[in-house]
Amino acid sequence: MSPPTTTVRAGQTWTDCERGQVRVIAVADGYAMLRRRRRNPFLASTDQMLAGQYGWQLIAEAASTVDEILDGVRQEIDRATAKFPTWPSDPLHASGVVQEESAELAKAVLQAVYEPHKSTPQDVAAEAYQTAAMAILIADAARLASDDG
Question: What is the pTM of this model?
Answer without folding.
Answer: 0.56
